[in-house]
Amino acid sequence: MLLARIVGTVVATRKDPRLVSNKLLLARPIDPKGEAEGNYLVAIDTVDAGVGETVLIVSGSSARMASGMKDTPVDAAIVGIIDAVDVSE
What we know:
Elements: E1 2-10, E2 24-29, E3 41-45, E4 54-59, E5 76-81
Parallel strand pairs: 3-5
Antiparallel strand pairs: 1-2, 1-4, 2-3, 4-5
């Protein structure tokens, strides 16, 4: 699982028919303190997330187990919107 911040949207006019009517979002992984790390990724939205929100992303075979994604060609799915992260050090 990854923590990420949504930084934009992706529009694809031609895509696999199983992806039609699904929203694609551009996300940037972050560390628990909210600092950007890693490369951007495109994830399918299953929870109606929006730009600027912090989300939880699953990837690989877990992404295909997200709600409504069975037999859909996805590698990353947004499965939660994060309200707060509390780090105790």
